[in-house]
Amino acid sequence: MRGSAPRTVAEPYTAENPELPRPVRNERMAPKARKSKYAEAGVDVKKRGIEVFKGTVENLFPNAFCVVVRDPFSPDHGLVTHTDGAGSKPVQSYLNWRETGDTAWFRGLAQDVLAMNLDDIICVGAEPVNFVDYVALNPFKVPKVELLRELNSGFRECLQTLRDHGVRVIFSGGETADQPDQVRTLDVSGTINGRVELTSVLSGERIKPGNLIIGLRSGGKTKYETRENSGIMCNGLTLARLCLISREYQAKYPEISAEERGYYGKYGPNDYLDELGMTVGEALTSPTRLYAPVVAKIMEEYRPYVTGLIHNTGGGQTKCLRVGRNIHYVKDDLPDVDPIFMLIQRESGEEWRAMYENYNMGVGFEVVAEKEAAEDILSVPERFNLEAKIIGRCERSVGPNKVTIRSPLGKFRYP
């Protein structure tokens, strides 16, 4: 799947490369910050509008990561139902397939939708029960039978990996919809159901000042994975595709983007970049990591010390804002940013402040724990060859939750 000639890309600034321009440090948001490149691409990272459902949803724990409702057949248990998709990553998988003829590019989407749902419900301590998928496609553009065959293979592989590590999820089938008038290429999403004892819910209420934040890396390769991961997960793919992929591919395959919006990158999906260690197409379609095996083991051994779990999907490094109450999350020792995010920022011109809000920036999952157990908890991801470190701490916030990020790329406070 790799292209022929690698392209030369400038390396990011480091102390060893002083001749390169230093990144701009944004100590605080300007009074009138310009619209982010992600927003200009038509995506609202803050998901404005969903607040209208607040009064309709019967959420027992409003400061928890996911909605928990009471199980009507077992009042001491809660039900957790979550639905999510692979974002616009299927469009990149489609382009990779069109350029190579290899339908295997669709297989990783199964892991994307499973991980995006499963790794969310475990954040409240829920045990997964069953999962269903939903596939919408344009049958005039996408080979349906081949697509479904690849997705089936992907689901089988993921479910077996989870079983091998003590996480059982029942696959209950799904729905396939031919929608040539509504879908340009394809969309893949899923829904998962879980249960949790109400007395065991990670509600966010136990997060307190003095807790430490452990970050689990999104890139790299764990013992239960077969290939290197870029760390992209499923968020920010719209901006990533537009800024990296050349407009010639939009002209060749106009179905990959709306007419009023254009690709402006300089790469093809088969271009191999040394800084990525893979092709651009491989980096953009790296499947979202399944954190459940690692988190399940952490909870098995250290549950009394874990006060919060956060899956850094939409909202990136600010996802923690939704968990807990009156907490100031201070992240001042984040790991080096994965190369894919450096590349996206350089090619798009997106502000670093917005990058940390749009992308996980190298940390896909966070474990908030009591200080005395944090170092011991790090031994669990180490067994899985998953890079992890203490990235920050919790302080008291007067009023709503806040996040402060201090990094070599700048200091940022949210909201």
Polypeptide structure, described:
27% of the residues lie in helices and 22% in strands. By secondary structure, it is of the alpha+beta class. The chain has a single domain (37-414), classed as PurM-like C-terminal domain (Phosphoribosyl-aminoimidazole Synthetase, Chain A, domain 2), CATH 3.90.650. The protein has a seven-stranded mixed β-sheet. The chain has a five-stranded mixed β-sheet with strand order 1-2-5-3-4. A hairpin with a 2-residue loop joins β13 (402-407) and β14 (410-414). The chain is globular.
Write a brief caption for the model.
The chain is of the alpha+beta class. Helices cover 27% and strands 22% of the residues.
